[in-house]
């Protein structure tokens, strides 16, 4: 068994997540300042409502460009922040876009109506008929309203992912329409060639990041590595491991704890992409994922044939040893969430305690491997079995298993209810937030 040792992170060093988050905030703040400067340079309208409306439109568009950056899947950001958090920030930024653009329309409508004597609705209709680009802006806002409604928590829980995703794709249409409206009708850009150049640069970089991160980089990596299934190994009645080989895998920047979006290029599966974590630390020769049956798609993994071509997007995720703050760690896994935990144990340096929570001994996937790896690494391994209630990972139980848990990094992966319960226990045990590492892989789709 090959293990990869990683040096302990210096406790006083800047945390990668903080560096990346600060960088994103700085980029947004700097561009907000530049937008305000160009806006002031163009001069102000006599009507205060029109001034507020134009500024709200500019900042709404800037937030829209920032949204694109958040979901571009750029490796530097993803490794430091994680796709789940970036996706969450994208969602909340989307509501910021919605409200700023609504404010833009309302202020502009009432501002111009105050000058013309029309009612606000008639004023919007008149602007759409007489001013270049305004009709495009109205259509863009309508699309954003539909996407915003579909992204609201109530609707999101009731829509199939495929339906929600299809609706969400229309955001790109809204982006194009809103951008062309601004450069055609925005006084900030019609008055200054420098402002237009700046705006084209901002949007070119944002859209370019999406193209590079979500298309160019995956296509290039898959062409380079030529991934194929090398073995299909049933681990239990409901769990299967897929072994994958390819070319130059030592140059694939994957780490233990990360995941890929996997497409197996068969007639009935090529269009499906599923997020599965690596269940073994990358060794430069092969990759392994381990999946539990959760529907027809994952059940079909057992029928994959050796030699099947694989298209993998990634690696993604910040659930790695890059974020360690202590030399010793606790790894807590629930069910098939043991897959990235098992890979992490292989890579982590320093003493580790592994807590594996399952309903019964039969549910302990990869337990023999985990036990042997713990023996080789000198780690403690606790298999915790039994029904959900009473909570066997409550604060008192965790403190009994790991008395010094507050002095260790904690890596956590499992079903959402279990993760929520363990996070509550960790807070009750006063484990500092920077020492708690987890990722909600359900958001990766």
UniProtKB/TrEMBL annotation:
<dbReference type="InterPro" id="IPR050415">
    <property type="entry name" value="MRET"/>
</dbReference>
<feature type="transmembrane region" description="Helical">
    <location>
        <begin position="133"/>
        <end position="155"/>
    </location>
</feature>
<dbReference type="Pfam" id="PF01794">
    <property type="entry name" value="Ferric_reduct"/>
</dbReference>
<feature type="transmembrane region" description="Helical">
    <location>
        <begin position="197"/>
        <end position="217"/>
    </location>
</feature>
<keyword id="KW-0472">Membrane</keyword>
<feature type="transmembrane region" description="Helical">
    <location>
        <begin position="50"/>
        <end position="71"/>
    </location>
</feature>
<dbReference type="GO" id="GO:0050660">
    <property type="term" value="F:flavin adenine dinucleotide binding"/>
</dbReference>
<dbReference type="InterPro" id="IPR017938">
    <property type="entry name" value="Riboflavin_synthase-like_b-brl"/>
</dbReference>
<keyword id="KW-0560">Oxidoreductase</keyword>
<dbReference type="InterPro" id="IPR013112">
    <property type="entry name" value="FAD-bd_8"/>
</dbReference>
<feature type="transmembrane region" description="Helical">
    <location>
        <begin position="167"/>
        <end position="185"/>
    </location>
</feature>
<dbReference type="InterPro" id="IPR013130">
    <property type="entry name" value="Fe3_Rdtase_TM_dom"/>
</dbReference>
<dbReference type="GO" id="GO:0016491">
    <property type="term" value="F:oxidoreductase activity"/>
</dbReference>
<keyword id="KW-0274">FAD</keyword>
<dbReference type="InterPro" id="IPR001433">
    <property type="entry name" value="OxRdtase_FAD/NAD-bd"/>
</dbReference>
<keyword id="KW-0285">Flavoprotein</keyword>
<keyword id="KW-0001">2Fe-2S</keyword>
<feature type="transmembrane region" description="Helical">
    <location>
        <begin position="24"/>
        <end position="44"/>
    </location>
</feature>
<dbReference type="GO" id="GO:0046872">
    <property type="term" value="F:metal ion binding"/>
</dbReference>
<keyword id="KW-0411">Iron-sulfur</keyword>
<keyword id="KW-0408">Iron</keyword>
<keyword id="KW-1133">Transmembrane helix</keyword>
<feature type="domain" description="FAD-binding FR-type">
    <location>
        <begin position="222"/>
        <end position="322"/>
    </location>
</feature>
<dbReference type="InterPro" id="IPR017927">
    <property type="entry name" value="FAD-bd_FR_type"/>
</dbReference>
<dbReference type="Pfam" id="PF08022">
    <property type="entry name" value="FAD_binding_8"/>
</dbReference>
<protein>
    <submittedName>
        <fullName>Oxidoreductase</fullName>
    </submittedName>
</protein>
<keyword id="KW-0479">Metal-binding</keyword>
<feature type="transmembrane region" description="Helical">
    <location>
        <begin position="92"/>
        <end position="113"/>
    </location>
</feature>
<dbReference type="Pfam" id="PF00175">
    <property type="entry name" value="NAD_binding_1"/>
</dbReference>
<dbReference type="GO" id="GO:0051537">
    <property type="term" value="F:2 iron, 2 sulfur cluster binding"/>
</dbReference>
<keyword id="KW-0812">Transmembrane</keyword>
<dbReference type="InterPro" id="IPR039261">
    <property type="entry name" value="FNR_nucleotide-bd"/>
</dbReference>
<dbReference type="GO" id="GO:0016020">
    <property type="term" value="C:membrane"/>
</dbReference>
């Amino acid at each position: 068994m090959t293990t990869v040792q990683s040096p302990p992170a210096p406790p006083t060093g800047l945390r990668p997540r903080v560096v990346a988050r600060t960088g994103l905030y700085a980029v947004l703040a700097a561009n907000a300042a530049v937008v305000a400067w160009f806006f002031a340079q163009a001069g102000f309208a006599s009507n205060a409502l029109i001034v507020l409306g134009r500024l709200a439109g500019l900042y709404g568009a800037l937030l829209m460009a920032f949204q694109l950056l958040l979901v571009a899947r750029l490796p530097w950001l993803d490794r430091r922040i994680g796709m789940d958090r970036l996706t969450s920030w994208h969602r909340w930024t989307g509501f910021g876009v919605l409200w700023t653009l609504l404010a833009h329309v309302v202020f502009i409508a009432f501002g111009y109506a105050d000058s013309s004597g029309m009612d606000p609705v008639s004023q919007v209709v008149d602007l759409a008929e007489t001013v270049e680009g305004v009709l495009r802006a109205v259509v863009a806002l309508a699309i954003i309203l539909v996407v915003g409604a579909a992204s609201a928590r109530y609707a999101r829980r009731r829509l199939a992912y495929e339906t929600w995703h299809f609706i969400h794709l229309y955001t790109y249409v809204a982006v194009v329409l809103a951008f062309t409206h601004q450069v055609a009708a925005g006084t900030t850009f019609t008055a200054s060639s420098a402002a237009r150049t700046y705006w084209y640069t901002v949007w070119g970089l944002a859209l370019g990041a999406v193209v590079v991160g979500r298309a160019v980089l995956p296509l290039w990596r898959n062409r380079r590595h030529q991934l194929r299934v090398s073995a299909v190994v049933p681990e239990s009645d409901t769990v299967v491991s897929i072994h994958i080989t390819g070319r130059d895998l030592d140059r694939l920047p994957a780490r233990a704890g990360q995941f890929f979006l996997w497409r197996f290029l068969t007639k009935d599966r090529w269009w499906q992409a599923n997020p599965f974590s690596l269940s073994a630390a990358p060794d430069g020769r092969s990759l392994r994922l381990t999946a539990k049956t959760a529907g027809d798609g994952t059940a079909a993994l057992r029928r994959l044939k050796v030699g099947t071509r694989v298209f993998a997007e990634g690696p993604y995720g910040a659930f790695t040893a890059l974020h360690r703050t202590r030399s010793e760690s606790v790894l807590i896994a629930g069910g098939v969430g043991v897959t990235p935990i098992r890979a992490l144990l292989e890579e982590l340096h320093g003493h580790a305690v592994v807590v594996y929570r399952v309903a019964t001994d039969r549910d302990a996937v990869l337990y023999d491997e985990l036990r042997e790896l713990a023996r080789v690494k000198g780690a403690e391994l606790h298999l915790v079995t039994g029904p959900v209630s009473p909570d066997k990972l409550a604060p008192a139980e965790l403190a009994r298993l790991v008395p010094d848990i507050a002095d260790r990094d904690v890596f956590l992966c499992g079903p959402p209810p279990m993760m929520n319960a363990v996070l509550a226990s960790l807070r009750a045990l006063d484990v500092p937030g920077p020492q708690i590492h987890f990722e909600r892989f359900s958001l990766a789709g």
